[in-house]
Amino acid sequence: MNLLDEFDTIAAIATPLGTGGVGVVRISGDKAFDIIDKIYSKKNLEAGRISHGWITDNGKKIDEVLILPFKAPNSYTGENVIEIHCHGGINVVQNILDAVLKHGARIAERGEFTKRAFLNKKMDLSQAEAVADIIHSKTKNFAIQSAKNLSGVLAREVDGIKGEIFETLSRIVAGIDFPEDVAEPEYSYLLDKFKNSLTRIDKILDCTKSSDILRQGIKIAIVGKPNVGKSSLFNTLLNIERAIVTEIAGTTRDVIKENLDWDLPITLIDTAGIREGQEVGKVEEIGIEYSKQSVSEADLVLFIYDSSQEYTQEDETIFKLLNNKKHLIIANKSDLKEYQNNLPFEESDIIKISTLNGDGIEDLKTKIKAIVSEYSSDETEFITNKRQEECLKKCRESLVRAIDAAESEELQDMISIDLKAALISLDEITGEVITDEILDNIFSHFCIGK
Question: Which residue has the higher pLDDT, 276 or 358?
Fold first, then answer.
């Protein structure tokens, strides 16, 4: 972004485009009140007071609206903000936005409203990133957890650790700069302080796995040979007819993915039936390779075979692909006469289902959800993203070096270097220290209008 454009008056549609009850056009910047004055039927808007009237352009009424005016610094961005609440619909909100742009605003970039909120100190960087997490959350649980960061849970803990490190650093610096007046702190004191800070860092890092799972979810792959009922099970779990089901072997020739919300975001994967032989064409062969890759990447594999047919070496070969992965063994077509032969599983390990009449499906869902719950945590104390995790790890490395130096009773001015590095890493989390490149990268993942 051009530096001269950084604080232009900006505008964007803040609600999803499409048919709906309400659409919102947001304006932020010094000219916000001047612009609305030119296109709104009422004048002298009072900040904090909702106004009802009409948006007009060249004397033509565009829509009947509600206006929410906010004066700086008491707004989301910390600037003058006007929100125009109009009727939903693609054309009406676009017509209002066009009128706003024509009278002095420019179209906002991705995440520019929240970026301005950060730059105007209405929120720190961890809270700004929480806004993106809430918008992009795939489950209700992750949205609730992300709201903790928006309320400042992570920022307050990071600030607490920073304060602790800064206090210790100040005592070291005072002892170095004013040795006649202030004694350098004892090394035992430094070790206690460093280890306490390290414990607090580790407490946040212990939540990173849960954070990643809440954000990315888990992958569940359905595998088996052709015509055992993989696509039927896929459709049944989704409760929609998503995959084509026929009696023809090799109908599914590609990997099909759909999302489920079972407290965690779940990616359910229907794979091509794995088989060998001359009848396998080039396209199906590629699909089979994708199936094998899906197995290797999955967090949980649903291995399915046809219980009305003999369990074959082909089934066993596929089962061995699981390679000790977390899995469930599913015997489909339980509505038909069961074929009795020596299965390589314990009877208690088999979940018998019928995708035709629904027998056993609820039991299967219960077992899947039990495994999913092992990945889930209703109360993860801290939610972090990859950028924040890397900053925490850098801080941890600096503290470990400081501990090693204190244990060796090295010169305290050398120890202070590691403490300064630790503080910089923590400042990167909340945004006191940040590069334009990183800042632009963070907000480029936002939607326009937020």
Answer: 358
Q: Which amino acid is at 394?
A: K
Residue 378: band (very low, low, confident or very high) from pLDDT cuts 50, 70, 90: low
Closest among 376, 382, 34, 339 to 205, alpha carbons compared: 382
384-418 CB burial, b ≥16 within 10 A, e <16:
bbebbbebbebbbebbebbbebbeeeeebeebbeb
Alpha helices per DSSP H over 385-435 = 386-407, 412-430
Q: How far apart are CA 385 and CA 211, in angstroms?
A: 7
Neighbours of 233 (CB within 10 A): 24
d(CA 286, CA 65): 55
Average per-residue pLDDT in the chain? 87
Q: How far apart are CA 103 and CA 107, in angstroms?
A: 12
Q: State pLDDT tens for residues 242-287.
A: 444 444 444 444 578 888 877 778 889 888 766 554 454 454 455 5
Does the structure show a pLDDT above 80 at 291? no
Residue 448 is classified by DSSP as B
Q: Which two tokens stand for residue 119?
A: 């730059």
CB 106 within 8 A of CB 32: no
Burial of 82 (0-12, 13-18, 19+ CB in 10 A): buried
pTM greater than 0.85 (yes/no): no
Strand ranges for 209-349 from DSSP E: 218-223, 256-262, 264-270, 300-306, 327-332
| pLDDT tens digits for range 389-423 | 999 999 999 999 999 999 999 999 999 999 999 99
Q: Count Cβ atoms below 10 Å from residue 81 Cβ, excluding itself.
A: 23
pLDDT at 159 over 90: yes
The Cα 352–Cα 174 span in angstroms is 72
Q: Which residues contact 159 (CB under 8 A, 6 or more apart)?
A: 430
